[in-house]
Design goal:
By secondary structure, the protein is mainly α. It is 63% helix and 2% strand. A two-stranded parallel ribbon has the order 1-2.
C-alpha cells in the first residue's frame, strides 16, 4: 500500500505545547484519561437499547407495526454501541485494562460487524492518513459517491448531493452482509493483516463464527424456531439498519467531507508538507459543540478534532480538552474548523458533495 511521511519538524512547538497542556489538565484534576462512571452508565444504556428490544421482538406479543418501532429502537442501540462503546474500546481508551478494551471491542460483533476490520480501516488507515486520497478508505471511491477530488468522476455524481443522504442509510446493510468479507480478503491480500501481527486464517475464522451467530440470532431463531413471520423480521431488520446506517454515515461525513476541510497529498517522494497533528487540524471539523445530548449519544464524535489528535483519550473528556486545543491552535495560527450546529455542518457537507460532483474540468 502507498504511504505518506509527515514532516514532524513542521509546527513541532504546537505539538509539544498542546500535549503538555492536555497532560497538565489531567494531572491537575487528578483524573484518568480513560473512561469513567459516565461511560460505564452509558454502556449499560446503549446495550439495553439494543438487547431489550431484541428480547421483546422474540416474545412477539406486539402487533407487527409495534415490532417495527422496536426494530427502529434497536437501530438507535446499534449507533450507541458503535459510537460510545466499541469506538472507545478499540482505540484503547475505554479502560486502562487492555482485556476490558478487548471485551468491550467485541460489542462490534454483537451488532454484526467485525472489530478487526474496523481497527484496520478506522484506527490505522483513517486516523493515520485522514483525507489523503488513495490512503484513507473512509473517502475511497464508492461508485455512486465521489468523496474526494481525485476520485473517478461519473455523470451520476452531479446529483450526489441529492441522493447521498438516503443512500447513507444502506451503509450497514452492505457492510454487514457482504462488505466485511470482501474487506478482510483485501487486508489479507495486501498484507495489512500480517502487518498488524494477526493471522489471516484466525481472523477469517472469527469473522465466520461471529457472523454465523449474528445471522442465527437475528434471522434463524425468530423465523425458523420461534415462528415469527419472515417478512416481518426482514422488514424490521431493514428498518433497524436504515436508522443505524443513516446516523452513522452522516456523523462521520460531517467530520471530514465539509467545505473547510482539505485533501492534502504527498509529493512524488511520499512526503507531506505538515506534521501529523497539523494535518489532522486541516482535515477534520467539529460540529454542535456544547450540545450535551448530541455529544452523549454519538460518543463525543462531534468533537472530531480532539478525537483525532488524542484517540487514546476517552470521549467523555473531549468537551473539556477542546477548550485547550482551540486556544492552542489559535496561538499558533493553526486552523480549527467547527460548525455551531448539526444543520450547519450538514449543509456544508451537501455543498461539498455538490462541488465534488462537478465534472473535474468544470469544478
Amino acid at each position: 500500500m502507498a504511504s505518506a511521511k509527515f514532516n514532524m519538524q513542521n509546527q513541532k512547538d504546537f505539538v509539544s505545547v498542546l500535549k503538555e497542556r492536555v497532560n497538565e489538565y489531567f494531572t491537575s484534576k487528578g483524573i484518568s484519561k480513560f473512561g469513567d462512571s459516565r461511560l460505564y452508565w452509558k454502556t449499560a444504556a446503549m446495550l439495553s437499547l439494543y438487547i431489550i428490544p431484541y428480547i421483546l421482538v422474540l416474545f412477539n406479543f406486539l402487533p407487527f407495526w409495534a415490532n417495527w418501532m422496536i426494530y427502529a429502537l434497536m437501530g438507535i442501540g446499534v449507533v450507541g454501541i458503535g459510537m460510545s462503546v466499541m469506538h472507545d474500546a478499540i482505540h484503547g481508551s475505554y479502560s486502562s485494562n487492555k482485556y476490558v478494551n478487548k471485551i468491550m471491542g467485541l460489542s462490534m460483533e454483537l451488532v454484526g460487524g467485525n472489530s478487526f476490520n474496523w481497527k484496520v480501516q478506522h484506527n490505522v488507515l483513517h486516523h493515520t492518513y485522514t483525507n489523503i486520497p488513495g490512503m484513507d478508505e473512509d473517502i475511497a471511491h464508492k461508485s455512486v459517491l465521489r468523496l474526494e477530488p481525485t476520485g473517478e468522476w461519473k455523470k451520476i455524481h452531479r446529483f450526489q448531493h441529492i441522493y447521498a443522504l438516503p443512500l447513507y442509510s444502506l451503509l450497514t446493510i452492505s457492510w454487514l452482509l457482504w462488505g466485511d468479507f470482501f474487506t478482510m480478503i483485501r487486508y489479507n491480500k495486501n498484507g495489512m493483516t500480517k502487518q498488524l501481527g494477526a493471522k489471516s486464517w484466525k481472523e477469517f475464522s472469527k469473522l465466520l463464527l461471529f457472523k454465523s451467530i449474528y445471522i442465527f440470532s437475528l434471522f434463524i431463531l425468530p423465523i425458523f424456531i420461534l415462528g415469527i413471520s419472515w417478512w416481518q423480521v426482514i422488514v424490521g431488520y431493514v428498518l433497524m439498519q436504515l436508522v443505524a446506517g443513516f446516523i452513522l454515515s452522516v456523523t462521520f461525513q460531517l467530520a471530514h467531507v465539509v467545505e473547510e476541510t482539505s485533501y492534502p497529498e504527498p509529493d512524488a517522494d511520499g512526503n507531506m508538507e505538515n506534521s501529523w497533528a497539523v494535518h489532522q487540524m486541516q482535515t477534520t471539523a467539529n460540529f454542535a459543540k456544547g450540545r450535551k445530548f448530541i455529544s452523549w449519544f454519538i460518543g463525543g464524535l462531534n468533537y472530531q478534532i480532539e478525537h483525532h489528535l488524542f484517540p487514546n483519550i476517552s470521549h467523555v473528556h473531549y468537551p473539556k480538552i477542546s477548550e485547550i486545543v482551540k486556544r492552542t491552535a489559535k496561538e499558533f495560527q493553526i486552523p480549527y474548523h467547527e460548525y455551531k450546529t448539526v444543520r450547519a455542518a450538514l449543509m456544508s457537507h451537501l455543498r461539498r458533495l455538490k462541488e465534488l460532483g462537478k465534472q473535474p474540468s468544470m469544478a
